[in-house]
Design a protein that fits this description.
single chain, polysaccharide degradation, disordered N terminus, 11-stranded parallel β-sheet, secreted, 341 residues, mainly beta, 30 strands, Pectate Lyase C-like, signal
């Protein structure tokens, strides 16, 4: 169960063909208040497709395509952003410049929220994917800087599934920078820079929220947890959560925690100056299960491990980078301005 065999990147030809067809004839983005017919043919994402759980065909959704097929709009104000992320149907929403929010705003299904260039920023608030009555399924968030959130920077909640959070910069929030909870599922978190914060990434609402059992399948790959204190991630109930090829640097409390019978596979990561790379159980939470393999621990403590986990390769194919290459590759590739939005 713990071996790797015949692991390779998931073919993306079909998805790429859809993107190419969508791009053909596109005439550029519209202003938020004037969507055009030609803009409706632009691609849902800046480029590429997710690896990991967001790519899986499940729950009636074949991978994560966001706003593919919907109009493209460009937003520059909080009012415009709130309007378009809450509209029914698919939309490709381009965030231009700095947008000041007063709290969390709700994102509903089939949206791509893409920062333009290197200066797109959401500050003072955050994005909540879905409400109890309006699902936040099939959502892509890419190339945006999140700062000074009054609650979470991004909250994947209320049974949201098929979510791809990629190439963002998250810092200086109030609570969690990125929380995934309340029966959400099939999420990929990739190429993000987490810094200047304590509680980075939570999976699972609470020790008592057992409705999360059988849900919360999440992939974390090629993220940079840069001096953040804890929760990279902290996980309850989920099985499996796949944590591969991430760079951990100077995390003061711990790197990863598996609790409440969660199952984590931690592989190919690079831990530098991390006294407690992995915990099995944490604080008042009961122990989980954690398998580690092929990680590097540089000036770091020994990992805690326990039990067995479901192999993520039973869900999707992936390529594992050599852990020694992770610091250079991740620091060069994470955050905003690395993809062409």
């Amino acid at each position: 169960m713990n071996g790797i065999s015949h692991i390779r990147r998931r073919p993306a030809a079909a998805f790429a063909a859809v993107l190419l067809a969508a791009l053909t004839g596109a005439a550029g983005a519209a202003r938020a208040d004037v969507p055009t017919a030609s803009a409706a043919r632009t691609a849902a994402a800046c480029d590429g497709a997710p690896i990991g759980f967001a790519s899986v065909n499940a729950l009636g959704q074949n991978g994560t395509t966001g706003g593919l097929g919907g109009p493209t709009v460009t937003v520059t104000t909080a009012a415009e952003l709130k309007d378009y992320v809450g509209r029914p149907g698919p939309y490709i929403i381009k965030v231009s410049g700095r947008i000041q929010l007063g709290g969390m705003i709700t994102v509903v299904a089939n949206k791509s929220i893409l920062g333009v260039g290197t200066t797109a920023e959401i500050t003072g608030g955050g994005l909540q994917l879905g409400s109890t009555t309006r699902p936040g399924n099939n959502v892509i968030i890419r190339n945006i800087k999140f700062t000074n959130a009054s609650d979470d920077s991004i909250s994947v909640t209320n049974k949201a599934h098929h979510v791809w959070i990629d190439h963002n910069d998250l810092s200086d929030g109030y609570d969690g920078l990125l929380d995934i909870k309340r029966e959400s599922d099939f999420v990929t978190v990739s190429w993000n820079h987490f810094h200047h914060h304590s509680k980075s990434a939570l999976v699972g609402h609470s020790d008592n929220y057992t409705a999360d059992i059988g849900k919360l399948r999440v992939t974390y790959h090629h993220n940079y947890f840069d001096g953040t204190d804890q929760r990279h991630p902290r996980v309850r109930f989920a099985d499996p959560v796949h944590v591969f090829n991430n760079y951990y640097r100077a995390n003061a409390l711990y790197g990863i925690a598996s609790t409440e019978n969660a199952g984590l596979l931690v592989e190919g990561n690079y831990f530098q100056d991390v006294a407690h790379p992995t915990h099995v159980g944490y604080a008042e939470s009961a122990p989980g299960r954690l398998v580690e393999r092929n990680n590097l621990y540089v000036n770091s403590g020994a990992p805690e491990t326990a039990g067995t986990v479901v192999e993520p390769s039973t869900y999707y194919a992936y390529t594992l980078d050599a852990p020694a290459t992770v610091p250079a590759k991740v620091t060069a590739g994470v955050g905003v301005g690395k993809i062409g939005c």
